[in-house]
Design a protein that fits this description.
The complex is a heterodimer. Chain A contains 9 helices and 12 strands. By secondary structure, chain A is of the alpha/beta class. Chain A has one domain: P-loop containing nucleotide triphosphate hydrolases (Rossmann fold, 3-Layer(aba) Sandwich). In chain A, the strands form 3 sheets. Chain A has a 6-stranded mixed β-sheet with strand order 6-9-10-3-11-12, with helices on both faces. Chain A has a 4-stranded antiparallel β-sheet with strand order 2-1-4-5, with helices on one face. In chain A, strands 7-8 form a two-stranded antiparallel ribbon. In chain A, a hairpin with a 2-residue loop joins strand 4 and strand 5. In chain A, helix 5 runs parallel beside helix 6. Chain B has 12 helices and 19 strands. In chain B, the strands form 2 sheets. In chain B, strands 1, 2, 4, 6, 7, 9, 11, 12, 14, 16 and 18 form an 11-stranded mixed β-sheet that branches. In chain B, strands 3-5-8-10-13-15-17-19 form an 8-stranded parallel β-sheet, covered by helices on one side. In chain B, helix 11 runs antiparallel to helix 12. The chains are: A alpha/beta, B alpha/beta. Chains A and B meet through helix 2, strand 7 and helix 3 of A and helix 1, helix 10 and helix 11 of B. The structure holds adenosine-5'-triphosphate and magnesium ion (MG). Adenosine-5'-triphosphate binds next to helix 1 of chain A.
Chain lengths: ~250, ~475
């Protein structure tokens, strides 16, 4: 049981971006990925989710034994994969509550509907945990939200949809210190033996609040180094330059 | 929005609301009447004989026929597709006897499925599918009818209206929309049958919306409906026409005329939700007159049809009168929605508001035509026009033809138009949350019309949402 990525290659029409990426995320574990701008971190998250911009040209991805690559975007999501976007989209006219309810409903068997009272009870409880004002239920999804509010809203969705594996793409960017703590608290509340996380970040600071079990360094479309939480501290202190010569050669 | 309101909204949109009221209208026994194919004076004599129309109506119809014959098709501005209407191949009046007899087994599977998804009660399905011609009565409607007639409200079909209430009928009939307004209003004037006649006495505020749907018979939903609503001074009424269930009709030409008269201080709201099958030409003329301090509001949703041409209008004849058009049009593959609004300011300090949203899917085409007229000698008039188009894929087409003629400078007018796409990134975002492509699309479309959908009575807006779900389901993958 795990999210297994083996030798994954993916390209946009004119260029390969993921160049043989291998990574296994076990339930119960938090993996962090750090890496320079443009190294392919967001691309990895979108390829996992089945974004049509990217063509997978090699390798395999399985989620708890199921071949993820042959599933549609929505089927992957319903199978338990969640992505907290680096840049969450705005959806005019659709209220946050209706959106989340529709997403939950999509996970039920055809013809079944969710219990409205129970839904709201859960929604309000989660929003309280994230210190979100109730007015966010009736506002259009992400429309007019500040950068930080959007990120918080992604975590709210994560908490409501209770995925098996969650990828968080730079959830910390745009968050002020207090908001960062609050979001981290939300994520930590969701940590459990049967849920795996992949946290993409540039800064050690997030990892102070969401303590990773394993830290990876991604460069030029590959994982080039893996270590414990101390690796993040080292990266924070030294940057990426020191890794380049030996590790890149080794990963290639 | 308050928490309580939020709950109510939620409850409303999830509640399995059905069109669960039916009418008490029973269709009169008729012999088999047939006016034959095509249109001539003979056809009109025939219709008048069958309906027992008075002489002035016979004259009115015959004059209208001449106008119809003389008027060219408006293809100099409208689509050439109009030329494909073969006027000689229609029957212009059918009594029950000639209605094609169908059985439930003949109704296509996908149609049955649609009824199912919309939650239409069994008995109504048969009517809507053209299997049955009428409904049985039901207490719910009788109560409304009793309540309104107690208040002196007249609510009958147009034939009964002109026969039994000639003094009111004659005064306004054909006055808001003259026969020669356009080729199709002339056609309707020649062969009209069905539609409603409503008179609301002074000061009476009708609590319940009056629904044509409650009064269904085959004539009511006829091809050439004629509706006349008169709200006397200080009265208020809401009328709802059509229903969200698709009509599966063999007739492909529909040309209705609707005239509204709101006298001093009166308010009329006219709500339409129509979902035509994609072989129908739906060529409608709708207009209201608003006297001093009166309000006429058209709330209009058009889905489907091969071609819909409909530009509800308001003539603001009295000071401080207000005209509004709120419209939603959805054109799927092979369909053309040519809709808009006409606002004619004819008194000082009159206000008009037009909000139009169109959705074009696949090869579907939406056109907005607006006319706002404010003459030079008036002062203090206001118009606000907003038209937004949503394109579901790059093949869709949308055009906007606003014609705003504002003379004089003591007026405030505002015009906004926008065209947007449902972006691939938006669909990806929604699908990443587990929604299918169709669900993602319909949520996006529902979001687009959300602020207008609230203008519809609640059960209509719930139905509207379901309808859009169905349309999107059919158009994706
Ligand atoms: N759809 C796309 N079209 C064109 N180029 C793309 C696309 N997606 C990714 N790229 C390119 O691939 C590279 C990797 O992008 P990606 O967004 O995955 O980087 P990242 O590691 O997330 O960077 P950052 O830390 O800045 O978020 C970049 O050079 C980017 O411009
Ligand atoms: Mg990124």
């Amino acid at each position: 049981m795990s999210l297994q990525i083996k030798d994954l290659h993916a390209k946009i029409p004119d260029r390969e971006i993921l160049k043989g990426l291998t990574l296994t995320i076990e339930p119960g574990k938090v993996h962090a990925i750090m890496g320079p701008n443009g190294s392919g971190k967001s691309t990895l998250s979108k390829v996992l989710c089945g974004h049509e911009d990217y063509e997978v040209t090699g390798g395999e991805v399985t989620m708890d034994g199921q071949n993820l690559l042959e599933l549609s975007v929505d089927a992957r999501a319903r199978a338990g994969l969640f992505l907290a976007f680096q840049y969450p989209h705005e959806i005019p006219g659709v209220t946050n509550a209706n959106f989340i309810r529709a997403a939950k409903k999509a996970r039920l068997p055809e013809g079944e509907d969710i219990d409205a009272i129970a839904f709201y009870r859960q929604l309000y409880a989660r929003m309280d945990q994230l210190e979100m004002d109730r007015s966010f239920t009736s506002r259009s999804v992400n429309e007019g939200f500040s950068g930080g509010e959007k990120k918080r809203n992604e975590i709210l969705q994560l908490m409501m949809l209770e995925p098996r594996y969650a990828v968080l793409d730079e959830t910390d960017s745009g968050l002020d210190i207090d908001a960062l703590k609050i979001c981290a608290r939300g994520v930590n509340a969701m940590r459990s033996e049967d849920r795996g996380f992949l946290v993409i970040t540039h800064y050690q600071r997030l990892l102070d609040y969401i303590k990773p079990d394993i830290v990876h360094v991604m460069m030029e479309g590959r994982i080039v180094m893996t270590g414990g939480p101390e690796l993040a501290l080292e990266l924070e202190a030294k940057g990426y330059d020191w890794i380049q010569p030996e590790a890149l050669a080794a990963a290639a | 929005m308050s928490e309580r309101q939020e709950h109510l909204d939620e409850a409303a949109s999830i509640a399995d609301i059905k069109i669960d009221s039916v009418g008490d209208f029973t269709f009169p026994e008729r012999n088999k009447f047939d006016s034959g194919y095509g249109l001539s004076e003979k056809t009109i004599d025939y219709i008048c004989d069958v309906k027992g129309d008075p002489d002035w109506i016979r004259e009115f119809r015959k004059k209208a026929l001449k106008v119809f014959d003389e008027k060219p098709m408006p293809t100099h501005w409208a689509t050439k597709d109009l030329e494909n209407i073969k006027f000689d191949e229609f029957r212009y009046y059918l009594s029950d006897g000639q209605k094609p007899k169908k059985s439930w087994d003949d109704v296509p599977e996908d149609v049955k499925k649609t009824f199912d998804r919309l939650g239409i009660p069994e008995q109504e399905r048969k009517f809507l599918a053209g299997v049955e011609a009428q409904y049985d009565s039901e207490a719910a409607y009788s109560n409304i009818k009793a309540a309104v007639s107690e208040q002196g409200v007249i609510f009958v079909n147009s034939t009964e209206g002109l026969h039994k209430h000639p003094e009111i009928f004659k005064k306004w009939f054909g006055k808001v929309i003259p026969t020669g307004d356009n080729k199709f209003s002339a056609l309707n004037s020649a062969v009209f049958s069905g539609g409603s006649f409503i008179y609301v006495p002074p000061g009476v505020k009708v609590k319940h919306p009056l629904q044509a749907y409650f009064r269904i018979n085959s004539e009511q939903f006829g091809q050439f409906e004629r509706t006349l609503i008169i709200a006397d001074e200080g009265s208020e009424v809401m009328y709802m026409e059509g229903c969200t269930a698709p009509k599966f009709d063999t007739a492909t030409l529909h040309s209705a005329v609707v005239e509204l008269v709101a006298l001093k201080g009166a308010k009329i709201q006219y709500v339409t939700v129509q979902n035509w099958s994609s072989n129908v030409f739906n060529l409608v003329t709708k207009r209201g007159i608003a006297m001093e301090d009166a309000v006429v509001k058209w709330i209009d949703c058009n889905i489907g049809s091969r071609l819909t041409m409909k530009y509800p209008g308001v003539v603001m004849k009295g000071e401080r009168a207000r005209g509004e058009v709120i419209s939603i049009a959805l054109a799927n593959n092979g369909q053309h929605q040519d809709t808009g609004a006409k606002m004619v300011h004819a008194a000082n300090n009159t206000t008009s508001n037009v909000i139009s949203k169109s959705i074009s899917i696949g090869q579907g085409r939406s056109t907005y035509r607006g006319l706002v007229h404010i003459p030079k000698h008036l002062k203090g008039c206001k118009n606000n026009t907003e038209c937004d188009a949503l394109l579901i894929n790059s093949n869709s087409r949308t055009d906007t033809y606003p014609a705003i003629s504002v003379r004089g400078n003591d007026h405030a007018t505002q015009h906004e138009a926008s065209v947007s796409q449902v972006s691939a990134e938006q669909i990806f975002y929604l699908m990443q949350r587990g929604l299918s492509e169709a669900e993602a699309m319909s949520l996006s479309v529902n979001g687009f019309i959300n602020d207008l959908a609230k203008e519809f009575p609640m059960e209509y807006s719930v139905e509207l949402k379901r309808l859009i779900d169905l349309e999107m389901e059919g158009s994706v993958g």
